[in-house]
């Protein structure tokens, strides 16, 4: 009997919503401050979250290749719910640490497996050439979810900074039944038993043996880390300007609507602009955005800079992931995508505590432009090698 795997697309949308409808994201740094944590402690928690992903990211991606994408997505959805249970009923640095560890492990089981499930579902139906289109839609679903959640989370936080965490637990739970009802697509694989050596072999292939894939992963990870860092930083900057939780949540809504809208046109924009122009322009806008944000002392200047930054993110994320998918063998795709996430989280685990320390010791503005210079240097040192792996497209 021949199956159609198109139903998976809609279930993946639900998982994306459960994962990205983040009521807590636009106010979590304010929540930490309300609970008496310093900026350094707050960013330490986010670094711990990233470290837990670094530890489990590639093994979970490998398990997705061996045991199936469905199993790992179920595990990820369950842990994603449990982490918010800890946040809802706990308090203090150590309970938050347990929550971040749980959420990090859950994230690692979803990351990579969801994109691999999408690509392989389309491939099974003979539609792999439409991956960028559906990945763009999937990414937009996530950003529109995050957009709506920003305003809702800000409104709930006006009542109590704890309230968004209670609602978040229920939203995260929606991913569990969606994952359980996925249909596993056929994937070519000659491996029968999970072996740690195989994981190392894939990492070696992706980062050492395959030159083209290596620079795709490294450059994509630098840009990914930049966008991840800004997601936690801008709410502190807006709070410094004196804006309320509701305004900060509303800003998150506008930013993610921008990302979601731009992402829908990412494929056309890349084709019209060409690969090289797309990569260079988004790289400059993203890394330069940090520097300009750090130099801004006026909200009227900071907000447009933030908007442009998020628009560039909406183009860069699906385009860079598509480059990786197109040059990666199907049987190791989830593992390779997990390597990308591992690199992003690994870099962030170093950058986040540094940023927190700089913002406490110097100022938030100084920390922004210093980290911006770091990202600019990293992207500049790798973009040429990355561009050499691309065919010129007009």
TrEMBL record:
Record's GO cellular component, any one? membrane
Q: What is its main location?
A: membrane
Give any GO molecular function from the UniProt entry.
transmembrane transporter activity
Residues in Major facilitator superfamily (MFS) profile domain copies = 1-390
Topology in the lipid bilayer is annotated as: Multi-pass membrane protein
Q: Which UniProt keywords apply?
A: Membrane, Transmembrane, Transmembrane helix
Give the transmembrane region(s). Answer: 12-32, 47-64, 71-89, 165-183, 217-234, 246-265, 277-295, 301-320, 332-355, 367-387
Subcellular localization(s) per the UniProt record: Membrane
Any idea what this protein is called? MFS transporter
